[in-house]
Design goal:
9 strands, transferase, 3-stranded parallel sheet, 2 domains, 4-stranded antiparallel sheet, Formiminotransferase-cyclodeaminase, Chain B, domain 1, alpha/beta
């Protein structure tokens, strides 16, 4: 099923599939591809169309919050485009998905048309099951498409935002309440770091509690600070961190910052990295 969706992305000229990863507990696949603005928009639409054909949300279960078969499509400026370009593309893509596929679409982050919808967790509130009833309320009506969930594909969030790091930290406990308490302590909406979003979930296949995190601004809150804060909070419950993972791609700068911190490097410059100098022709 995942390969069929990936194939439609691969089939768009000018688009390069960079990475994809699936997780059985989250029951979610994260796909990253790049290309010219119009080509990326086309690939995203075709992927959403194929997902609607293949995925039945009435049968979907997973630990990660979601509202539809194509849960979220973020457009991210990397090179040669601006955030304003991505906002325009997100709104165009959202309209196409809503009108052509009859899937309700919510615009979020920089593309949001309503200030209360800038936050993706707010858009996902109630998830697929809760949105079935809530979508008919004025405050939950979609920005594009019908005011009812697609019978199999649910709804989709489309937005424009800076690069985000999906970073998960696994705890040495099967008590999900500990993970939820730590997530509440670090996320911005509960008084933690403003650019951090976090949830506590259970990895049933490993019987391990996890703090699943979106690092929305790694320059403001670097990965090592996130990890050290989670370690400190976990210690309050007598729990250790047993591992962490990055889902999808990550900016090299974020990893170099973490390396410099843990190696206690003095006066380290990123242009000291061999591969970086070769790539830049320095």
């Amino acid at each position: 099923m995942v390969e069929q969706i990936l194939d439609v992305i691969r089939g768009v000229a000018g688009v390069k599939l960079l990475d994809y990863s699936s997780d059985p507990s989250h029951n979610r696949t994260v796909v990253t591809f790049v290309g010219g603005p119009e080509q990326v928009k086309t690939a995203a639409f075709l992927a959403a169309q194929k997902a609607a054909e293949l995925i039945d949300m009435e049968r979907h279960r997973g630990e990660h919050p979601r509202i539809g078969a194509t849960d979220v499509i973020p457009l991210i400026p990397i090179s040669g485009v601006t955030m304003e370009d991505c906002v325009r593309l997100a709104r165009e893509l959202g309209r196409e998905i809503g009108e052509k596929l009859q899937i309700p679409v919510y615009l979020y982050e920089e593309a949001a048309l309503r200030p209360e919808r800038k936050s993706l967790p707010k858009v996902r509130q109630g998830e697929y099951e809760g949105l079935k009833e809530a979508i008919g309320r004025p405050e939950r009506r979609p920005d594009f498409g019908p005011a009812r969930l697609h019978p199999t594909a649910g709804a989709t969030a489309v937005g424009a935002r800076p690069p985000l790091i999906a970073y998960n930290i696994n705890l040495g406990t099967d008590d999900v309440a500990v993970a939820k308490a730590i997530a509440k302590a670090i996320r911005g909406s509960s008084g933690g770091y403003p650019s951090i979003k976090a949830l506590g979930i259970m990895l049933k296949d490993r019987n391990v509690a996890q703090v699943t995190i979106n690092v929305c601004n790694y320059r403001e809150v670097p990965l090592h600070r996130v990890l050290e804060t989670v370690k400190s909070e976990a210690a309050r419950y007598g729990v250790n961190v047993i591992g962490s993972e990055i889902v999808g791609l990550v900016p090299m700068e974020a990893l170099l910052d973490a390396a410099a911190f843990y190696l206690r490097l003095e006066g380290f410059r990123q242009d000291q990295v061999l591969e970086k100098r070769i790539h830049e022709g320095g």
